[in-house]
Design goal:
The protein is of the alpha+beta class and 364 residues long. It has 13 helices and eight strands.
Amino acid sequence: SPEGGFYAAQDADSEGVEGKFYVWDKAEIDAVLGKDAALFCSFYGVTEEGNWEEKNILWRPYRYQEFADARSIPVEVLKQSLKTSADKLLQVRSKRVWPGLDHKVLLDWNALMTSAYAAAYSALGHEKYKEAAIRNLDYLHHSLRSAQGTWKHSSAQDAAFLDDYAFLIAAWIDVYQITFDTQYLHWAQQAVEYVLAHFLDSETGLFFNTGLAQSDIVFRKKNLYDNATPSGNSTMVHNLQRLGILLDRPEWREMAKKMLGVMRDTVEKYPRSFERWALAMLNETFPFVEIAIVGKNAQEKARKIQRSFLPNYIMAVSQTPDDTQPLLKGKPGADDAMIYVCRDYACQKPVNSLDTFYDLVNSQ
């Protein structure tokens, strides 16, 4: 949406034909692009026969440089030609009947998008992804948070479900991991405490789908399966594991272990139906690498580390010593930021070289 949220869905069809808005036949492209059509069609795999129901879904079989070298043309000339052609086709497509759009903004799905953008920024470093994640959280905060501080599933539905809270908490943690703004941790902590007070089944240690505020529910169910989206319960395990370290809340880590204990036999028997549960079990088998970075260029080093593949790490970063964050407490910094590698708050001797850091991580 223009405000920063994400709509729920868009129809696959328009004018009763699936994909009509997006696909092309070669004759139409030839008519629009003229002499530039051959290059465009070759690059995007467009044929007379098509690749989907006698139409073409544009795709890229080649890299720019590979394609340019094969045709002995400068890569920048290729890119400019393709952009000019794409702009012409976009003008034509804009006159087609658009697919219907479901304008609902759902808290759980938006939180998942925030986490996706945070992961994309962490891996690729594109600022636009970080900005989208932050903007989406700002939008949710202003549009789906009630005056009492609780959250709504959507603008049309007052009470949020477990999935809403679980995915939102995960999104706050993920955005903290790319911004190191402790406000996100504060919000995540508040939300976990609310979930524990309103959704927890004290007998099993698992969570109900609905909170105590939803008094019209006859029977409170639990959703445990990881399907197209992970379950709120398995997501809460990850939240409790990560926040347990970031906020030094060992009781939350114990709650996560209890949940995994309840589900262990089921997950081992049907792992494909409980994939996020299985990942949480791996976090217990191979404990988190705790990374604390303190010093003037701490964020720069953090960004470089995030480009690497570290499957289960927790990171806290500050340009100056910060005793308010448990992972940073008592850790001095330097002009050339010091990197601390820890397990369960037991830390190796700090280093300032990234190569030495990787050696430390790989040796554990």
